[in-house]
Amino acid sequence: MGPRDKFSIEPLYVQVRNLLAQRLASGVWPPGSMLPNEMELARELGVSSGTVRKALDSLESDRLIVRRQGRGTSVVDQASGDAAARFSNIRNGEGRRIGGDMELISQIKAVATATERQRLQLAAGDFVLRSTRLRRYRNQLFMHEDAVLAMSRFPGLDEKNAGTLRISALAQRHGIHLAKASERVTLEEVSAQSAERLDIDLHTRLLKLDRVVYAAGGYPVEWRVAFCSLKEDMLYLAEMV
Amino acid sequence: MGPRDKFSIEPLYVQVRNLLAQRLASGVWPPGSMLPNEMELARELGVSSGTVRKALDSLESDRLIVRRQGRGTSVVDQASGDAAARFSNIRNGEGRRIGGDMELISQIKAVATATERQRLQLAAGDFVLRSTRLRRYRNQLFMHEDAVLAMSRFPGLDEKNAGTLRISALAQRHGIHLAKASERVTLEEVSAQSAERLDIDLHTRLLKLDRVVYAAGGYPVEWRVAFCSLKEDMLYLAEMV
DNA sequence: GCGAATTTGTGCGTATGTATT
DNA sequence: TAATACATACGCACAAATTCG
Q1: Every domain range in chain B assigned CATH 1.10.10.10
Q2: Measured between alpha carbons, how far is B144 from B238 in angstroms, rounded to an integer?
């Protein structure tokens, strides 16, 4: 890596962090595998071990890697375990996040509407992939959702099964690191169509979850509007720090 | 501070962090004031500047202090600005958190019920302070809340005006550092009494916000159940990271 | 079961960069 | 401009956890 590049404003440890993040995204070190140890990385990149440590600190706080003393550093699998439902605030009785099983209802590729362009920060003419899905938990239908994917953020997107994957898995396949999401929670009367699909009475009160998921670069990748009927032993839990 | 104490498992920088946190809580450095610089702290405590830096990193990430290069390190005022509404997910149109103006309706000191003991992790016989309040934003009534304060966590609590202060201000006065909160969001039909107080029709759809606020030690300090009628230009926004 | 090797974590010290006053 | 204070970068030594022979 050599001495600090005068033309890049970024501190060296940030450059290292970004380089490693890029490698993680590229699949050089697949999910679950081990990274080279810190000294080796420092040698290879020509920086001090302290600089590598700061870079790894950053990657760890972004949940891209996990480190364990005496063991080493491994790559987090975003598509399995708790990471897969990271952006769901629906939890079961034990407090674990619920993703649920998805059933794709319909899917269509289209030019983004004005609203979609606004929410996903897209340009005119950009394409989106709209998916309508149902979600079940323990065979109970609890959610109906319309998800809109910004296709330009997913180069080489496989449109065939994109709608059947949750955003965490899809992002990992495309080397995209998800960073955060913000979800607007409101109460809304359910539409006749949704009521039928969720098998509930019209006028039943539902949670409307309007969520945008952002990638590490700060740009939005998915906009989803879901109607959720909280079943017994399910709750919406917002953590504030 | 000297060499590492063999009987305390904590790393030195954690010990320094806790010592400084304690000083902050004690009011030695009041909100808004400047801390001694890093080298001075290191000299005074007899540790390296790197250790002080790690301690300050931790305090900063816990939002107890803010550091600015070239300027120094100052103490965050938890009772004003955004910090005061840190545990409210209700936001206005510009995305700023809304605390609102509080109007105390009633207040009573009592022995904790079983539910209160459970939510606040109290022992039998512990006292709580129950406050019922209304909240307004721009003269619009939007929230009715029942707050339960664990009195044992607030030594020397001034019962007279405890109910009129928001939890962030109250905690700061008692040298308690708030760390996190978790809020259960559900839909519930409003009670007749709440409906009257919020000046809305019965059967209007409301958000029920059931929130517990935790201090830095991990113990709960306040349990609050609120019914919120989201007015125009207000929204509930949950951030996920 | 024990000890050696490996790997991350902690702690120290120093030099230099950069933003603020 | 000069002084101050935090930020970055380097390097070394040792501690603690894990793994493996």
Answers
A1: 4-75
A2: 20
